[in-house]
Amino acid sequence: MVLKLLVGRFVKITEDNMAFWFLFILLLGLATYLMVQHSVAHITRTPVWLLWLVLMTPAFLLSGWTLFYGAKQPPPPGLIIWSIFVCTVLYWMLFQWGRQVPRDTQTEAQPQASELQPTIQPTPEPIVRPIEPIEETLLRNCFPWSVYYVQNIEYRPQSVICRGQLRTKASNAYQQIKTNIEAQFGDRFLLIFQEGLNDKPFFVLVPNVQAAKERNTPRRDQERLTRPGLALLLLVATLLTTTLVGVEIAGVTLPPIWNISSLFTVLSNPNVLFKGLPYALGLMTILGIHELGHYLTARFYKIRSTLPYFIPVPFFLGTFGAFIQMRSPIPNRKALFDISIAGPFAGFIVTLPLLIWGLAHSDIVSLNEKTRLLNPDALNPKYSILLAILSKLALGSQLTAKSALDLHPVAVAGFLGLIVTALNLMPVGQLDGGHIVHAMFGQRTALVIGQIARMLLLLLALVREEFLVWAIILLFMPLIDEPALNDVTELDNQRDVLGLLAMALLIVIILPLPQAIANFLQI
pLDDT tens digit string along 510-522? Predict the structure, then answer.
């Protein structure tokens, strides 16, 4: 009862003053981020922004419900209860997954362990020797003066920085020096080529810890990277959760998830489950093809990566998406670009026919106060340039200026596919779009572009509240992503054109239909 009153109070505040709620979420997000960064950043390898996102998910779901259904329909208390429970468990799992034992604890625990179990020897961490002063001559010999003239060598605790003058093409210099380093030092080091100040790129040698670990790891353990059993389990679980959501999108009212007996009675009818499959299969196909594009391209470049893992949730969309993890460094900006753009383009290619078919089988309703960007029962197609064009293509003269769309479940999946594509193409940090602009313009320019993109979306959210949650997530997402090994060699013209097309696709998805184009399309 108390939770229901609090939710009702939230709806009232949102309805009366959206700007107040925007400011509240912004301050809450900032406080939560600072709390996570201060309390757990030093004891876990899990990214701070990911832990923050999990903690903020209940607030984002509450906001999303209001944007989805309007302020007059409060969300069910079960949604809030389950979101808090699931996110708490997920936060704990992510924290434990990346947890690091403090050095003091490790030092104190070793004598105790040896006293209790003197016959068991712990597996030592692989040690990678840094460059020693006596080896400096060998190092300098790896840099021919006609390729890269070394002027200064800086020794750092975990790296060796070689600064000098580039005398040939960046790609040729990197390949030749990499070959020389491997000939002298084997696989002891990873060679990184980065942009420097005044257009003077520099080389960095860092210990190749991964290679050292692989030498001390049995091949059977190395082959466990893909974990097909885990990928299949998550796939089946996500199919179940998205089917449940699809059943409700199809118009079937399900009992609360905690009412197990009633829920099982309803779901034991195959006809009910079949109604949820169009949405589930459509959405999972889009997300799966998106991640499969990343995975196959990474395999093409011989980068170690996991299979796509889906994230099931028993509410909202039925899933938080899918992801892969790459366990090898990316060799160059060309590979970074290809891997990053393959996902959005592959997902978009699948999204188009599904969305057009779904729109053709959707119903046309009249524009009313419930018409919102995220309301599938009364969606205004003019909220997006691309959506409006596709709607006119699918429905023809039936679509008029006073029409809204009651989306078919497949159209809902296709529309979510557009949103996923646009979100991933945002040129910010570790998103696909951030990697794309990094590969096109370099890391320093990408930082500027990412900051501008965050500010523009924040300003857009002040005018169109549908982008509120999106803007806040990007505001706290780090702008810096890891450089490629050869982060200096620029892309060819064909890839630059593809990158510009990706940014154009982002624009036509998120911007509303201009009135001039609406008059031309007669909608």
Answer: 888 898 888 888 8
